[in-house]
Structure formats: structure tokens, C-alpha cells
Amino acid sequence: MVFHLVKEVRDINRFREILTVLFEEGFDFLIEKTKLKHKIPLTKRVKKRINQKKKHNLEKRLRLTLERLGPTFIKFGQVLSVRPDLIPKSYIKELENLQDNVPEFSYYEAAEQVKKELGKDINKIFPHFEKKPIAAASISQVHKAALKDGSSIAVKIQRPKIRRLMETDIEIMFYTAKLLEKHIPKLRKYNPVKIVSEFAKWTSKELDFKREAINAKRFARNFKGDRTVKIPKVYENLTTNKILVIEFIEGIELHNIEQIKKKKINIKPLIEKGFNAILTQVFVHGFFHADPHPGNIILTPDDKIAFVDFGIVGHFDERLKGNSIDLFYGIVENDTNKIVDTLIELSNKDVQDKEELKYDVEDIVTSLQGEDISNVKV
């Protein structure tokens, strides 16, 4: 068992640390089921903390656990918070609190990273650079700064040594996901290994800021001339794999409800603009912002919707566009056969009992007929 563990997980100390946090936050039942309990020194102090943590509900305990485990797990929780297809609504609501709850790293570390990447002292590149970040995320943090020509910019700086930490943590996630699938049959339908695999793929892309710059420029081209959407300009000469410099967008982040109310902004037309922008990205451009949580959407002073943070994007090809339109038509026209055929085509899987699937779909579609559109959740 020890040899197998060493092959699967190279950093045994980090693995024990993760298991201990899971125990302390009241997830000891998972450790017991995966037969890893012997890896943790169960002192009286740890047992006492477990009992204290169990006073919280599972949702809160999960959020607290992810926060304690650090950037990789916080990012994982953030990804899950926009995946209602994977986890219940109560968990999503709790995990949304992870969006901005990440400690910042020091100005000294930020300055060192800038010098290492751009080859000059930070004050020689940016005459003005705010030492306190305006945002701190799991992979990076953002500082407001200015160029010599006075342009207001946002400097996104990758956390020092974050790539190595995330690679180690994802390695442990894979190992744990395999054990969960092996020992807890009920979890197999959620494909834990596949979820971790998808997370690993997106995280690898997000760690490359040059790729994010390319994504941002593509969004800018797609929305060129649009009167309702703003995409920040990228400063390519100051962008590397670990530093991204873009135009600073003035405005209010969508999640700042208090500020929106204080400014007496009419939110309805802005929401319509944002919704139309998302639909345009998906069905017209076929290239969309895949991490559209409220912190990544800004309401500008001239009533535009600005998108920021292009590390995670999605693609919607012509086949998917066509299938989605067929699906909506099938629902509107109450055509169950069309809906079922489209779902089968989308899934790329054989269906053992097409008639049973048809009956299930009919139940859903029938319940929508005659319902007020305002009560229908798309």
C-alpha cells in the first residue's frame, strides 16, 4: 500500500496534511470509507475539533475545508459553484462565498515576480503601482497601476510557486477520486475522476497568462463596435506567462449589490445586456466566457457590460449550436421525438430504452405547457 501510494502521490506530507484537514472539518466518514484513516494521527485535540465542526451543516464544512486547503482547492470550489449540473443548489450557494475569500501575497513578492518576468524594477515599468491588490484570487492577484503615458492599467501577477503547488494537489485529487469511485459506489455516477481531469485541464490553461491574453484579444475582436459590451485592451509587450497587463476598467462589480443600489442604477436593462452578451458569445461567436461569476462582470459608468478574466473559455461549434436550437424548438413545439433525438445526438451514447426516455421527457415538457414563462427556469 505504501509503495502504491508513493507511485500515485509524490508529496506524502501534503497528502497527510489534506487528510488531517478533512478529518478536522468533520469529513472523517469519507476517510474511513476510502480506508485512509491509518494515515492520520488521531489525537484527542483532533477528535475534539471534529465534534465541534460537525455542528455546522455539510455545505459550510465543505467551504471551510476548501479555504483551509488553499488556492487549488479554493479554485476547485469556485469551479463547482458554477456547475449546478454537478452539485445541489445549497452547496452552490455556500461555495459562491469562496469567490473573493483568498489571502493576498506581499508587495515584495509581487515586485520580485514582475522583475523576474519583465527584466526591470517595478517602478521603472510602472511609475504608479498600488501596493495593495484590488483583487486576490486563487491563482493570481491584481494591482492597479499606471503607465508612463498615464494609461490606467490592471496588472495581474501569478502567485509565486503556484504551479508546483497545484500540480501536487491535483495529483492527490486524482488519487483520492479513484479511491472514492472504488469504495463509494453511489459517487460513481458523478465521475469524480473525470471531474478532476476536467479541472486539471482548465487549471493548466489558466496558469498560462499568454493564453489568456490571446483569449481577451479574440473577445475584443468579436465585440468590436458593440455599444453594450466592453472588453479591456491587452498590453502584449508587458505580458508573459506569469504577468498579464490589461486596461483598467472603471465600474462596479456585478456582485456589489449595495453599491449598485447606492448609485440608483436600473439593473434590469443591464441584466438584459449581460444576458444578450452571453447568448451572442455562445450562439453567434461560438466562443464564450466560461467563468462568468459576478466578480468577472463589471458595470461601467457609461452603462456597458465589461467582461474581465479570460482564463477559462468555452467553444460552441456549429453542431452544438444546431442541436441546441433543435432542442429549444422541440420544447416550444411540444415535439418529444425531436427532443429525444437531439438529446441522444448530443450525448454520443447508445440509449437502451428510447421509449422510456421519451416518457421521462414528456413528463418534463408537459409540465411546462401552459406555465407562465416567468416561472420557467431555462
Would you give an account of this structure?
- The chain is α+β, with helices and mostly antiparallel strands and 378 residues long.
- It has helices spanning 2-8, 12-24, 28-33, 44-53, 58-69, 71-80, 89-95, 107-118, 122-125, 162-183, 192-206, 209-222, 257-262, 267-285, 318-332, 336-347, 354-368; strands at residues 128-129, 135-136, 140-146, 152-158, 229-230, 243-247, 252-253, 287-289, 297-299, 305-307, 313-315.
- α16 crosses α17 (354-368).
- The relative contact order is 0.08.
Q: Report the helical percentage.
A: 40-55%
Beta fraction: 5-15%
Number of helices: 17
Summed over residues and divided by their number, the pLDDT gives a mean of: 86
What is the N-to-C succession of helices and strands? Answer: HHHHHHHHHEEEEHHHEEEHHEEEEHHH
Rg result: 23 Å
Oligomer: single chain
How would the global form be characterised?
globular
| Terminal CA distance | 48 Å
| Structural class category | alpha+beta
Give a short account of the largest sheet.
5 strands, antiparallel
Number of strands: 11
Contiguous uncertain segments of 5+ residues: 1-6
Name the descriptors.
10% strand, alpha+beta, 17 helices, globular, 11 strands, 5-stranded antiparallel sheet
In summary, what is this structure?
The protein has 378 residues and is an alpha+beta fold.
Topology at a glance:
Blueprint: H1 2-8, H2 12-24, H3 28-33, H4 44-53, H5 58-69, H6 71-80, H7 89-95, H8 107-118, H9 122-125, E1 128-129, E2 135-136, E3 140-146, E4 152-158, H10 162-183, H11 192-206, H12 209-222, E5 229-230, E6 243-247, E7 252-253, H13 257-262, H14 267-285, E8 287-289, E9 297-299, E10 305-307, E11 313-315, H15 318-332, H16 336-347, H17 354-368
Parallel strand pairs: 5-10
Antiparallel strand pairs: 1-3, 2-3, 3-4, 4-6, 7-9, 8-11, 9-10
Helix pairs in contact: 5-6, 5-7, 10-11, 15-16, 16-17
